[in-house]
Design brief:
2 domains; alpha+beta; D-Maltodextrin-Binding Protein, domain 2; 5-stranded mixed beta sheet; 33% helix; Fructose-1,6-Bisphosphatase, Chain A, domain 1
C-alpha cells in the first residue's frame, strides 16, 4: 500500500521532535551517570555497548511514532541488533523510520555528555525527514527535504543551520572515523590525517553531523553506514547546504550499510577531500 509522506510540514516535524525530547526526559537522562550494575553490556564486541537507556528510549520512541504516524515501519538499532532481517526495510520499504535511541552509547556509559537520539524517515531508502535530539542541551536539529534545516529548542525557538563555506583541505576541520576501515584503506588514510588543519572524533556521529551542518566541521569520513547513524545527518547536512556521497560518488542510500561516505561543503570540496584521503 502506498502511503503519503507522514511528515511533510514543519509543524509535524516539531511534534516528532517533542516525542524524542519526552523520551529523553523520561528514559535517558534519569539513567545518565546513574546506571545500575547490569544495565550496560556488550553486543558484538567490547566497544559495541548497549545500556538500559538505549532499550527504554527505543521502546518509548517506537510507541510515540506508532501513535503519531501509524502504519509506518520503524527500524530501531536495538531491534535490528536482535533481528538483522529488519534491515531490509531500510532500503526496500516505501516508508520507514530508522532510529538510534542513544547515539554515543560509549560516551553515555562513561558519563560524558556527548550523545543524542537520531531519527530519520526514509522514502525508498532516501532520507526525507530527520531529527538529531540533544538530551543535554534540550534542542533538536531538524530537516525536511526541500525545506531546509534548523535547530529548534524546547520553547519552539528556531535558528537555521548552514554548512561551512568551501575551502582548501589544509584549512579544513575534519572528523575522520578510521577505526572500521579495511586494513589496506586504513593504512592509506591514517598517515594523511595531518593534511587537515584540525581533526578529531567525538565517538558520536550525531554530534559530528550537527557540527558539520552548523559550519563547525568541514569534512567527515565514515566506513560503517548503519542507517540510524547517518541517514539523519546526511539529510540535515544536505539541507544546510552541504554535500555527502558514498566513496564511489553515488548518492547516500539507506539500503547501503558499509563502504563509506564523505561529507564536505560542496561537490568540489568533496572531490578534494576524497583525493587527499583515498587516492594513491
Amino acid at each position: 500500500m502506498s502511503l503519503s509522506n507522514p511528515v511533510a510540514s514543519a509543524t509535524r516535524a516539531s511534534d516528532i521532535a517533542a516525542a524524542l525530547a519526552e523520551a529523553a526526559v523520561t528514559e535517558v537522562m534519569p539513567r545518565f551517570r546513574n546506571l545500575a550494575d547490569g544495565e550496560v553490556r556488550a553486543k558484538s564486541g567490547p566497544q559495541d555497548l548497549v545500556t538500559a537507556a538505549d532499550e527504554a528510549c527505543e521502546r518509548a520512541v517506537v510507541a510515540a511514532l506508532a501513535r503519531l504516524c501509524p502504519g509506518i515501519e520503524i527500524v530501531g538499532e536495538e531491534a535490528a541488533s536482535a533481528d538483522a532481517s529488519l534491515l531490509a526495510a531500510t532500503g526496500g520499504a516505501e516508508w520507514c523510520f530508522v532510529l538510534d535511541p542513544v547515539d554515543g552509547t560509549a560516551n553515555f556509559a562513561a558519563g560524558l555528555p556527548l550523545f543524542c537520539t537520531m531519527l530519520a524517515l526514509l522514502h525508498r531508502g532516501d532520507p526525507v525527514a530527520a531529527w538529531i535530539h540533544d538530551p543535554v542541551l534540550h534542542d533538536t536539529a531538524i530537516a525536511l527535504a526541500g525545506q531546509g534545516a534548523w535547530v529548534e529548542d524546547r520553547h519552539g525557538r528556531r535558528h537555521d543551520l548552514r554548512a561551512s563555506a568551501p575551502g582548501p583541505v589544509g584549512a579544513m576541520r575534519a572528523a575522520i572515523s578510521h577505526r572500521y576501515l579495511p586494513e589496506e584503506l586504513a593504512a592509506r588514510v591514517r598517515p594523511r590525517l595531518g593534511l587537515f588543519a584540525a581533526g578529531w572524533e567525538l565517538r558520536c556521529a550525531a554530534h559530528e553531523w550537527r557540527l558539520a551542518a552548523s559550519g563547525q566541521l568541514d569534512a567527515l569520513l565514515y566506513w560503517k553506514l548503519m542507517p540510524w547513524d547517518h541517514a539523519p545527518g546526511v539529510l540535515i547536512h544536505r539541507e544546510a547546504g552541504g554535500h555527502a556521497a558514498l566513496l564511489d560518488g553515488r548518492p547516500y542510500h539507506g539500503g547501503v550499510h558499509r563502504g563509506g561516505l564523505i561529507a564536505a561543503p560542496d561537490r568540489a570540496t568533496w572531490q578534494a577531500v576524497h583525493a587527499a584521503l583515498l587516492e594513491p
